[in-house]
Amino acid sequence: SSLASQLLLLEEAEGGFDQFTRSYNSFGEQRQPDGTLVFKEWAPGAEALFLTGDFNGWDKFSHPYTHMDFGKWELHLPPNKDGTSPVCHGSQLKVLVHTKDGERLYRISPWAKYVTQQRDSVVYDWVHWDPPSPYVLKHPRPKKPRSLRIYESHVGIASPEGRIASYSNFTANVLPRIKDLGYNCIQLMAIMEHAYYASFGYQITSFFAASSRYGTPDELKELIDVAHSMGIVVLLDMVHSHASKNTEDGLNRFDGSDSCFFHGGSRGEHSLWDSRLFNYSSWEVLRFLLSNLRWWMEEYRFDGFRFDGVTSMLYHHHGIGSGFSGDYSEYFGLQVDEDSLVYLMLANHILHSLYEDCITIAEDVSGMPALCRPVTEGGCGFDYRLAMAVPDKWIQILKEYKDEDWNMGDIIYTLTNRRYGESCIAYAESHDQALVGDKTLAFWLMDKDMYTNMSAMVPMNPVIDRGIQLHKMIRLITHSLGGEGYLNFMGNEFGHPEWLDFPRQGNNESYHYARRQFNLVDMDHLRYQQLYAFDRDMNRTEDKYGWLSAPPAFVSAKHEGDKVIVFERANVLFIFNFHPSNSYSGYRVGVGAPGKYTIKLDSDAVQYGGHGRLDHSTEFFTEPLPFNERSYSMQVWTPILQVDRLHVPCPASLLWGLFLCCGAAAVFWGSSNAWERLKWCPCNS
Predict the structure, then answer these.
(1) Which of 112, 219, 328, 630 is a Cys-bridge partner for 590, taking CB atoms 3.0 to 4.6 Å apart?
(2) Is 363 a catalytic residue?
């Protein structure tokens, strides 16, 4: 196979992939034991290279590189007479490239490990980063979680204040929240340096540099170290699908040519993203990208990656104008970019060979078969793919359908339609859904009422009541049915209002929407803390019973008339009533295991913004009466403890109808002679 031949070539030419992927130890800037600094670059299209900077008074030509084989250039700077470094920590550098056309171009080393932007400058500067006392990582990596519960995060917006927040703020103020919420994985966005803040970190300019707008490399290391001490793994949002078109502070035209790291001509351009596309067949591009993965794993001790833009990589058409129906002809043909596919296989093979607990996630909307099967089986080697159809379905339902027209079968189909044996990360909404032009699920549900009617001191109006109950139901059914992992974008767990918009010319450089208002959760009189509490207890319950790591659910009911969904997973029974007005008394549900069931989690509990109508002391007993393809069944009901004035009084039931929206979630613990089981009934209000 192409992968096997690449591995053989690596063995022959580089002594194996271990050394090849550590090329950050030989390229860029390297301090030798005797204090000598060695600078090495790959610039095949250049006529000459010079190093200039603070160290030589910005003399353009005093320090030329020596031309080596295969387009490589090298420069040795001996230590000062007193043994100190010839280039001081924190001083600025530039590579001056002389092109074959006679141009002189200022460039940043592609391997630069720290770049900064002066206050009044547009362009980033390469800064020599060699601190006398670098941060020492203290805590080992946690083991790979059995069930992956991901908190998708952006350091810069992780504060209620209208400014760019810092790594240190995230460590001190956000990590404790993530731990409390029960997430065991953080996916950090926008860490690889990007000159344009509003690109959300997806137009990378310096691939080896942690973004300096949030602080120093040492402060990022401390963030990851503290997360590890809490038992939380940290994934990096890895952008190897394309690169920024910036030239002076990016990779584009590094050596003056149109190609170098990228394909020349139209193949090297992404028409929609206005960015450059890597030439994955190039030996030195493979060195650069594979070493980049290794760098973040070794230097910062990340635990894996979420690969961005995988669909764009897999196909020559980049997914543009292609609706994927699932027909195999769409995945196997000349439209597949084999170079990219082999790169992804190579990346996954190397990562999983070197790091047993490494986690890789693919952002792929196409449904490429075997993307998440091992490379040894001929798969691409990812651990998970994002279930990208799920958030789109929720937005479509909320935008296009009345509550009474929701299609239970359609919801179930979307949540369960995944390739068998390929793990998915389910999510109700991510950063994509919150971007300007769209809005968070909470804002779709409650809109302007969130500004005036979120007080817990007064009864809920119908809009807030419906919104709070559906917000919990959507999350719970997605969490329990939609995948083998779960993802939430920071702030959305508590119903963050509005949308995301970064400072840019179009909004007068405003930070108003480029922040997360965690202060809303800290106000006891607001209902945001009720949504926060439900999300926390939903995660903690999963941690106890492990449905994400269990085989797919058995759906025993999806009743269109009743708007009821019933399924079992990990010995937990879930019941949802999505009917906008109907409640049900003595509702029979099928179960696979006999025994006694008790409520363990109830979305209608008062602390979650519910109406407290379930009696948690109620016990439910199965009968040997087959129902809905299950061997046993039981009737679910419970005394009404309270009826809110907004609701039509309904018969005693476990599942009831609210005015505008109906449902409830409860967890059931079931026991019989030889075993104890948990059975969960999320019938959400």
Answers:
(1) 630
(2) yes
